[in-house]
UniProtKB/TrEMBL annotation:
Species the sequence originates in: Streptomyces sanyensis
Lineage: Bacteria, Bacillati, Actinomycetota, Actinomycetes, Kitasatosporales
InterPro entries with a match to the protein in the record: Hydgase_assmbl_chp_CS (IPR019812), Hydrogenase_HupF/HypC (IPR001109)
Domain of life: Bacteria
NCBIfam families attached to this UniProt entry: hypC_hupF (TIGR00074)
Compositionally biased tracts (Low complexity): 88-102
Region of interest: Disordered: 85-109
The protein's name in its UniProt record: HypC/HybG/HupF family hydrogenase formation chaperone
PANTHER family with a match to the protein in the record: HYDROGENASE MATURATION FACTOR HYBG
Pfam families found in the cross-reference section: HupF_HypC
Similarity comment: family membership: Belongs to the HupF/HypC family.
Amino acid sequence: MCLAVPGRVLGIEERDGTRMATVDFGGVVKEVCLEYLPDLRVGEYAIVHVGFALQRLDEESARQTLALFENLGLLQEEFGDPWENARAEAGLTGGPAPAAHPAEGEAGR
């Protein structure tokens, strides 16, 4: 599922002529393109979808939406551990991923 998630702008910079922001989505920090909201400022909130800030949002609405998404487990679904997600998509379930090289002395166990 791809959600439009509210996030708070932590920092803004220009990269190769494109305005980019570091955005906090309730503890998950991602890079976001600001081309659709060129006047968005640090500290403001925006709805973000597939890496693009689409609409400015007031802080209270953003916090309520993030809390709702968290309660429904949608933030974990959207931003969960990428390694865990890749394992699930590959059909690998169960315990932790096998170590690349067994520790010395454990090879024959």
